[in-house]
Amino acid sequence: MKIDFWIFIIFLLQLQTCSGLEVTVPSNPETGMAGSSVVVPCIYSLDFNKMEPKLLHVRWIFRDKVLLMFSKKELTSYGRATLDKEAAMNGNVSLLLYGLKVEDEGTYTCSVEYIGELHLKKVQLRVQASPSVEVTKSSTKSDDKMNLDCLVKGFYPKEVNVTWYRNGEIVNNGVITSEPRKEGNGTYDVNSTLVIISSKIKKDELAECRVEHVSMGTPIKEHFVLTQIGLKRNSVTLVSISTVTVFLVMALCRGLYWALCNRLKSKSNVVDEESVKPAVEPEAELQKCPRMGEIMVPRMVNGTKAFLQCTISGYCPENLNVTWLWMKPGTQQLLSVSPSDNKTATVEIKREKDKTYTCTACLSINVSVSGENSAQYVCQVEHPSLERPLQKRTGKLQVIGRSCVK
Ligand SMILES: *[C@@H]1O[C@H](CO)[C@@H](O)[C@H](O)[C@H]1NC(C)=O
Ligand SMILES: *[C@@H]1O[C@H](CO)[C@@H](O)[C@H](O)[C@H]1NC(C)=O
Ligand SMILES: *[C@@H]1O[C@H](CO)[C@@H](O)[C@H](O)[C@H]1NC(C)=O
Ligand SMILES: *[C@@H]1O[C@H](CO)[C@@H](O)[C@H](O)[C@H]1NC(C)=O
């Protein structure tokens, strides 16, 4: 009886030393962004040559609940969690969590069991969410006072720095910043208010709400030009500009920025109180000029279809007009291409991540020597940001005859 017991213990010990199971997880917390996915690492090792796959049981546990099980090569998942089955057989049982939420933050336990030997390892997961920043104006009882509210929304964790600047200097007086308020999904909102005395605005003052948060490498900066208009009532125009857009706009379309300011100014002269333009959606406010690439011309073979392609990118808003023009062989006059010429124009518009648009305009031509040889095609673009249309030309085309196949 006693000897049996010891033999059993020795047998168990042998199994353990045989399997040589080791489980490793990172000691530092892992960080994921809300809305995206994250890998929570967990690696095991054992003698893979002798390994019996059916005896491997992996579980991931979060807040006393099993998130997923991997057992007998089968994966069972109970939420937004998965793992790579093939990698799992080779020692990588890292957890892939997708659609990350603030509530997913916490301690995850990686449990690996092989021939009755169980290893549990804990990994910390931190979730971050970057704020959105919007500055709006709210009026006050006094005619001469105006509040600028910097609304910082949807961030996590709670710590945030909201700072107001006027002409590059930090404003300490006349700023009220609320305590972070928790939203339903666990993120926080903050409202920081800058009180502005309209009559004390200097000429074209630059104001800025700057937001620093651990989820972002660089702060978000919302800039405004404060302008005092109308001596009587001191209403104020607020023009929202982001630094990048200012550079872009100034470099690309000279004069547009001032045109924009003047447009807002003239509006505010007409209507009084409503004219104070809240700085919502700076993108909607600004235009970006289109850039045109060269027209792509294929080999023009007599009797075949050819596609001319013109790519226009980086513009905003979306309303862009593309026209195809052409010069018939031996003429100098630009005519517009019409469908009756047996040519079809198509456009494809795509919205880019940076909120600009890209348009691919295509002209399909039935090529003939008499129609196209030494003809020229022009792709012309009109857009609200442009004073004059942009054009690209193909140069004189050369049509080659199709070789005769008998
Ligand atoms: C949280 O909810 C707010 C609206 O209440 C939304 O704007 C934000 O994107 C949400 N954030 C996350 C991380 O789900
Ligand atoms: C383990 O797998 C995850 C994906 O599931 C991958 O991101 C990670 O790099 C892998 N780790 C190792 C050490 O191979
Ligand atoms: C922000 O705070 C100011 C006063 O501090 C208040 O007037 C305004 O309504 C608040 N805005 C929001 C959206 O909570
Ligand atoms: C906020 O400012 C303080 C003091 O300058 C700094 O120590 C802290 O790291 C800042 N916090 C964030 C989230 O940037």
Describe this structure in words.
By secondary structure, the protein is mainly beta. The chain folds into 4 domains: 1-128, Sandwich (Immunoglobulin-like), CATH 2.60.40; 132-221, Immunoglobulin-like (Sandwich), CATH 2.60.40; 230-272, no CATH class; 286-406, Immunoglobulins (Immunoglobulin-like, Sandwich), CATH 2.60.40. 14% of the residues lie in helices and 45% in strands. It has 6 helices and 31 strands. It has helices at 2-19, 85-89, 243-252, 256-270, 282-285, 369-372, and strands at residues 22-24, 30-33, 38-40, 43-45, 56-62, 65-71, 74-77, 81-82, 95-97, 106-114, 117-128, 132-139, 145-155, 161-166, 169-170, 175-177, 181-182, 188-197, 205-212, 220-229, 235-241, 291-292, 300-301, 305-315, 321-327, 334-336, 343-351, 357-366, 376-382, 390-393, 399-400. It has a 6-stranded mixed β-sheet. Strands 12, 13, 16, 17 and 18 form a 5-stranded antiparallel β-sheet that branches. The radius of gyration is 33 Å and the shape is flat. The model is unreliable at 229-237 and 241-285 (pLDDT under 50). One 2-acetamido-2-deoxy-beta-D-glucopyranose is lined by residues 159-161, 212-214. It comes from Leptobrachium leishanense (Leishan spiny toad). Residues 1-20 form the signal peptide. The chain crosses the membrane at residues 238-260. Residues 35-128, 131-227, 290-391 form the Ig-like domain. This is Ig-like domain-containing protein.
Please report the distance between the alpha carbons of the first and last residues. Answer: 98 Å
- Output the CATH class name of the largest domain: Mainly Beta
Strand content: 35-45%
Assign the structural class, choosing from mainly alpha, mainly beta, alpha/beta, alpha+beta, or little secondary structure.
Answer: mainly beta
CATH architecture of the largest domain: Sandwich
**Domains (count):** 4
What profile does the largest beta sheet have?
6 strands, mixed
Helix content: 10-25%
Can you give the mean pLDDT?
A: 80
Nearest-angstrom radius of gyration? Answer: 33 Å
Uncertain regions: pLDDT < 50 for 5+ in a row?
Answer: 229-237, 241-285
Instruction: Estimate the global geometry from the Cα principal axes.
Output: flat
InterPro entries: Ig-like_dom, Ig-like_dom_sf, Ig-like_fold, Ig/MHC_CS, Ig_C1-set, Ig_sub, Ig_V-set, Immune_Resp_Modulators
Domain Ig-like: 35-128, 131-227, 290-391
Organism: Leptobrachium leishanense (Leishan spiny toad)
Protein name: Ig-like domain-containing protein
